[in-house]
Amino acid sequence: MDSIDETLGEIPLPPYITAEDVTFALRAISVHAAQQWPDGSRCRNDRAPHPCRLHRWGRRILTMRGLTDQRINTMLADQEAARP
């Protein structure tokens, strides 16, 4: 865990997951994707060790919504394909 993660901890989850939360979670996962660096995998957005806080938050939201890793990956691929 990065020192900022140790200081701030995990991002709190909402009491219930809405459709808007799912949209935000998908965006967080796609923006905070892994990128390879000489010292290992880092977030391409904030350069924190991957998975960063926002990526983990997005995965937790989608998992709480009942989505499997395969379904999450499919949704991310669909989102990428829909971008102009």
What is the structure about, briefly put?
With 84 residues, the protein is mostly helical. Helices cover 54% and strands 10% of the residues. The protein has one domain (3-82).
Write the layout of secondary structure elements.
Blueprint: H1 3-8, H2 19-31, E1 34-37, E2 40-43, H3 53-64, H4 69-82
Antiparallel strand pairs: 1-2
Helix pairs in contact: 2-3
The number of distinct structural domains comes to: 1
The oligomeric state is single chain
Low-confidence stretches: none
Q: What is the topology, as strand order, of the major beta sheet?
A: 1-2
Alpha-carbon Rg, integer: 13 Å
Helix/strand order: HHEEHH
Shape, principal axes of CA atoms? globular
Query: Helix/strand/pairing class, anyone?
Result: mainly alpha
What's the overall average pLDDT, rounded?
91
Give the terminus-to-terminus CA distance. 35 Å
Question: How many E strands?
Answer: 2
Largest sheet, in brief, is: 2 strands, antiparallel
State the helix count: 4
Helix proportion: 40-55%
Strand content: 5-15%
Labels describing this entry:
single chain; mainly alpha; 84 residues; globular
